[in-house]
Amino acid sequence: MLENAVISLLVTLSSFSRCGAPLPIVPTEHEGEKTHGSTIRGDILAGPTVDLSIEATRRIRPTIVRRDFSGSIVRASAQPGRDALDAMDAARGIYALNDAERKALERVSAARSAAFDALLSKNYRGIFALQNVSARITSAQLLVRIGAMSDLVRVLLSFKPYFDRGVFLDEFERADGVRATTVAHARELERRYFDTLVREAQVAQSGAQTGGQTDRTEFAIRTRLDLEHVGMLLKEAIEAKIAFAAAEFEVFARTLDLSGTQAEQVRTALTPLFLAKLTGDDSPAMQRDAYREVYALLEPQQRRAFLDFAAKQRSLRAAK
Which residues lie across from 50 on neighbouring strands? Predict the structure, then answer.
């Protein structure tokens, strides 16, 4: 019971610490006991009392500006607007979301993820072409730089339907039951976050910022942040797909009872097929070749389980 109470308290406190604001501390309810002219609290071992009332939480100001131990800003997710809403809800009080807004938050998140994933699946080939785009953009050869920018613009245009939806808070604002004050608070948190990133970058470039160069530098910084935002969206979406594939492989490995060595060999054999599926370059022949390679790595009893697995996969594809 005591352990559960401690865990519950730690969870509550952590929700406040994520907001980057101090906890409101109030005196305990018990009157002190006087002994030899000094005041001793009756609950001296209990520690401070945390006031979780609405009045106290009004003083908690949420933020999505986080810093690590070195003082550097910890970047928010690819959806800073969602981060802002989460921080507000964790802060409670006047910033807390109502039930309709929490449901809208989940609906918007799911809808945006589905829309982005659909475009991602159609454009993997172009995305993979960006793997060395940073080096190409800074190349000494003009044609190489032009080619890199062309690839980058092509990918950005392929995601235009997603960007036309607006940022996260734009779509959240259009959802039913969302209050204007909630959106205004969240936009302010998001603005402070990006303004902080810009200021930090300007400080780093302070030697080059003189006179009228400041505005142009800020524009360049915000443009770079926009591009980084796109990169984060892609990175998070691809990592999610890889994580899903990894989870599926773990199920596959357990089903076939693969040894550690076999698991690595099978993973190596299937990786080219997985990458080809991402870019839409896979074919029945490629899958057959990969499955034959896997089959050769298995023991007799594992081969039977593998054939059952392959048959189920064919049935699932036929059902689609």
Answer: 25
